[in-house]
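Crash report, auto-generated. Payload:
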Amino acid sequence: MIVLRVSRGTVLLAAGLLMTAQLLAATAALGETLDYEPGRGLRLADGALTVGGYLSVAAEALDESRNHLAVEDVSILVTYQTSEHLSFFGEFELEDSIEVDSGGFGTGDDVFELERLYAEYESSPRLRLRAGQMLTTFGIWNLIHAEPLVWTTSRPIATERFFDTATTGIQIDSPFDLGGFDLTATAYLQPGDQFDNPQGAQQAHTAAGGRLRLGNGDRWHLGTSAVRFHDEVDKRWENTAGIDFAHRTRRWEFAAEAAANNGGSAPTTWGAYFQAVYHTDAEIHPVVRIEHVELDGTRGTPLIVGVAYKPASNIVFKLEGVIGTRGLGVGGNGPLASVNVLF
Amino acid sequence: MVGGALLIVPSPATGDAAADPRAFVVIVHPSNPTAAITRTELERIFRRSRRFWQHGGKIVPLNLPFGLPARIGFSRTVLRSTDAELVTFWNRQYFQGVLPPAVLHSVEAVLEFVAGTPTAIAYVPAGRENRGVRTVRVESDE
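Recovered output after restart:
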C-alpha cells in the first residue's frame, strides 16, 4: 500500500509560502524592485536582512528499509546584520514533511526543528564570537551538510556517528595569517543541554571542543578537530578526535575525513572516508566515495558511486548506488536519488 | 588621486596591458590610507574571510556583473577560481550566513559607490578609474 503522509507543519509552511508569494506579488504590483537572487535569498532592509533556504526531495530503494520518497528537508535561512559588528543567523528546518512509502499508515513526523540560532559578534579581524545553537565545528561535512551543497544524497557515516552534530553554547574563532596561508583556530563550550536537540546518534549534555584549520583559500586545507562531551544516550563521557583534508583543482575535488570515538571502557569506534568528484564543463559531476567504519563490533566498507548534475547554480540532481552498508544502520544497499534547490 | 596602480592581467602580457579588456585596477575611497595590498589579502577580502580594515571599519567589497572581462580577470588572478568554483564556494558560505560581495550593475555604479563609501573596495577595468576614487597597488605574494 502506498501511503501519503502530510504533517501539520507542512500545512503551516505551505500557508506561509502562499502568504509570502502574495506579499511578493503585491510588492511587484506596486512597482517595487525585489532584491532576490536564486540561491542567495531575498535581501530586505537595504541588505541587512536576508531570507533564503533550501529544499530537498529524495528517493531511496535500500534493501534494509522501506522504499521511500520524501521531502527530506525544507529549511529557511535568516541572516540579520544589526550593526557593523553584530549579526544574527537562524536556520529553521522541517524534516520528512511529505512522505510516500510502501509501509503501513502513519502520521507525518511533523518535526519542525530549530537547527541553528546564534548571534555573532566580530570585534576585530582576529576575533569572532558566537553564542547560541550552531553546527558543531568538527570536520568538513558537518558544516556544509545541506543537500544542495554536497555531491551525494547519502552522508558519510563517520561525519555524524561520533559526535553531536549541534552545539549550544559559545564559540570563538580566530583567523591568522601563517606565512601566507589561512590558519583558523576555533574553541567552543557547551555548558548544558541543546536548545532543540535532534535525536541523533550522540546527544551531548556538556561539551568542549576545538578545531585547527590550515588552508589556502578554498584550494586546499588540512584540519584537525577534537571534542569531549557527556553523552546523554550512553550516560558517559566520550572523546572524539578527527582529521580532515580537502583539495580542489579545476577538474577534481578531493575530500577525506577520519574520526575516532572513545567512551570510557567502551571499545574505540572509528570511521573514515575518501571522496573524489570530477567536474565537467557540462556540469555533470561523477563522484566516488569509499568509507570504512568500525561501530560497536560491526565493521563495513561502503562504496558509493554516483553522479550529480547542476542545470543551474542553485539546483542539483543526484543519483548514486550504495553497497557495503549492511548492518551499519543506514538503510542498507541500493540506489538513492534526490533533487535539491537552494533558494 | 589616480596613479601608482598595478595593472593586472590574467595572463602574461604580450603587449599593452591596458589594452587587455581583462586588466583591472583596485580602487578604494580617497580617505582610505591603504596604499598597497597583497593578492592574498585581496582574496581574503573578496572571499569575505577578512571583514575589517586594519585602520577600522567593516570592509564593503563590490563586484562587477558576471561576464565582464574585468571580473573574469579579477576572478582568475586574485581569486584563482572559475565562476563555477566560486558558485560552489558561495553556496557553502551562504549556508553559514556569509553572502558574496554585492554586484553593482555597471562600472559607473561601482565608481560612484566607492567614491561615496569610505570602507568600500572594488576593481574596475584599467583606465576607467577617476578622480573620485584612489587606486591601490596590488603586490604579488612573493
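Post-recovery validation: DSSP finds four helices and six strands in chain B.
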